[in-house]
Amino acid sequence: VAQALHLSGLEVLRFIATTSRPQAQRMLSMQVPELAVSVLMHEGSHEEVLVRGLQLLNALAPGSPFGGKAIAAAGAADAAVKAAKRYPRSMEVQQESLKILQTCDSLTARLRQLTSR
What we know:
- The chain is an all-alpha fold.
- Helices cover 79% and strands 0% of the residues.
- The protein has helices spanning 4-19, 21-29, 32-41, 47-60, 67-73, 76-86, 91-115.
- The radius of gyration is 14 Å and the shape is globular.
C-alpha cells in the first residue's frame, strides 16, 4: 500500500515539472523518468500510484526538446501498456497511458522520417 507521502511526492514532482521548465529539465537529467517507470512497473502499485506516475511522465515530456526521448528511453511506453492492461476500466489510467504512447509513437515516426531521407 502506498503511503500518502509517496503519493504526495509524485504529485509534487509533477507540479514542479509543469510549472518550471528548468526544473523539469533537471528532473530529466536526474533519472526521474526512470523512477516513475519503476513505480509503474512495480507489481504492488495500485491505481492511484499508477495515475500519479503516468501524470509525472506526461508532465516531464514537454519539459525539454529531449523530454519525449528521455521518457521513451526510460521504458515509458512499456510501463504505460502494462498500467493500461492492469486497470482497463480506469479512465485516468487509460487517458494518461494513451498520452505517453502518443508521445513515444510520434518520436518513432519522426525517427523514421529522419532515417528515410
